[in-house]
């Protein structure tokens, strides 16, 4: 926790080199905790940020301009996602002239906050006008902390109503919080899909990625925070942990190395130990998989599954850009679904098609972020073995959607059920021959017919358009999958 607090304390000095006078206002950050679970052995398990926000390092932190937020601690620590979001938005709107920067951990989380404002701005304006707190906010500590901030302000309520009542929400961030200088969110990796939406809501405010961190460890800082998202590089701080690197080799567009699908701490074998290189030995332009040994377990290297590219040096310290999270095919928020997990989920769902003599010819997936919240889309091409059997009713495909969701990991299901950060999964049925068309298109772009494999996830816009042009039916998951705080299915 001390090392994490140290890296947070370095963020404002870096930002002040590029954006002056940030100490003269506040940050409107939407920060949340998540429910805790227990391992089979009885140990408490929770996300790293929940652990940090609940710690004395955060709750009793000394005054720091970077952590001077519009949200009182009590609103951040409220376990109810609606009450937490409402109270944080209310405080942020009320202090709109003091806000110099806005953000959340992930780009998806900040967009979700703007979507929340779209739905509830009239209720928020009512509270600002009257100096009240909506009765749905029942958490006593939240009400007490917010009541110290909110006073009747009809003029501000009229202003917010006027802006939110416009037909277009383009630039809504700079209109409601006119002194905002940048948006502080992660927009690298899978989060880059949200950049156009953020640009629309902010009229092109700078998108700042300040630091690089994971559950295993906090790694480093972006020393040029005002750069474009595509140019973000992080300088690793050597005292955060012990860094080692596995060289990554590109193979027909794929990523391979000597560690395959590691998701739990384990010792490296002799061959892998020989391949590992130290921080001082990485080469410019080369890609590596990051392996860290933390202070909590020096003998246990923890592969983070992040693939990084060396982009330069700060003095002699290497700087890295984030390339991808290894093996992840789908991600909307903090969820990470790999190909094996998706395959198993689809396999479970196909049992619903057996009575109708239907088989799955081929499938792929797409993370659709045009909706708020975003959601998973699966494209299925089916073959009916016996066309004389009854047609497959929509309810069967709905059952397939729900089975897939219940087969995915607890982080996904928590996002669906508790955090509301992920929308219902959708299955789109495509015409017969669609995946042949997809292969033809890939070959026309230069793919080898001998080495072509159907991608399990698609992102390239023309391919998504091709698939959508051949959709004959679609359905959504009819309800949320099973998930209960404290009783999660445990996944390593």
TrEMBL record:
GO function term, MF aspect, one = acid-amino acid ligase activity
InterPro entries in the record, alphabetically?
Answer: GH3 (IPR004993), GH3_C (IPR055378), GH3_M (IPR055377)
Ligase keyword on record:
yes
Pfam families in UniProt: GH3, GH3_C, GH3_M
Q: Name one GO cellular component term.
A: cytoplasm
Q: Which UniProt keywords apply?
A: Ligase
The residue ranges of the GH3 middle domain are 234-325
The GH3 C-terminal domain sits at: 341-460
Q: Which family would the database say this protein is a member of? A: Belongs to the IAA-amido conjugating enzyme family.
What is this protein identified as?
A: Uncharacterized protein
Protein species of origin: Stephania yunnanensis
